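Work Package 4 report. The design task specified in the project plan requires that, given a folded chain encoded as structure tokens, an amino acid be chosen for each position. We show below one input record used in the internal validation round.
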């Protein structure tokens, strides 16, 4: 992600017109102008690119979409526009990280609520068996953790139960997060990773 931002200035210098920059990756890792404007929260530019044929579900080499970028950065108005224009909010990146997971990590509460109202599956897990609740703990956000818990998201234990390992608790998890995770009945032991 930071590589995208490093190339942001270069990309803007290369963009001559909306028509020739709509779907051509000009930056690091297949990032298009729509990815950059969604990440930056530039709704007017996102609107212009979409109306000029930008691929609304374009994926970078990492599999990130413009909706994923706006979810991470907390640009709800951009995310809503992309959704109305046809963005698929269920697309996960190459590591199976979803918009909901990345918004949970970044503690973008309004984005999380919007995604959940759109019916995004709160139980889906990434390739390592981690769901939105794990990402919330990794981000260190108690309010978001409680919101997800109250709305059907539970600790993703299936991976850990099958592999007979304990649930990893992210290094930056606060003590109250660890208590909540330890309290969850199916869990026996938590360890730091």
């Amino acid at each position: 992600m930071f590589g995208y931002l490093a190339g942001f200035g270069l990309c803007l210098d290369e963009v001559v017109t909306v028509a020739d920059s709509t779907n051509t990756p000009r930056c690091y890792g297949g990032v298009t102008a729509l990815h950059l404007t969604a990440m930056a929260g530039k709704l007017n530019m996102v609107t212009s690119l979409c109306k000029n044929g930008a691929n609304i579900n374009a994926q970078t080499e990492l599999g990130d979409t413009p909706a994923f970028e706006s979810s991470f950065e907390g640009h709800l108005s951009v995310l809503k526009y992309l959704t109305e224009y046809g963005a698929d909010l269920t697309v996960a990146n190459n590591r199976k990280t979803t918009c909901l997971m990345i918004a949970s990590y970044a503690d973008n509460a309004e984005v999380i609520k919007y995604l959940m109202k759109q019916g995004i599956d709160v139980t889906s897990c990434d390739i390592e068996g981690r769901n939105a609740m794990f990402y919330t703990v990794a981000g260190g956000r108690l309010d978001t953790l409680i919101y997800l818990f109250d709305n059907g998201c539970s600790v993703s234990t299936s991976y850990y139960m099958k592999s007979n390992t304990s649930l990893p608790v992210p290094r930056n998890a606060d003590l109250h997060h660890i208590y909540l995770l330890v309290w969850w009945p199916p869990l026996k032991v938590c360890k730091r990773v």
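The chain has a mean pLDDT of 76. Validation will be extended to a larger panel in the next phase.
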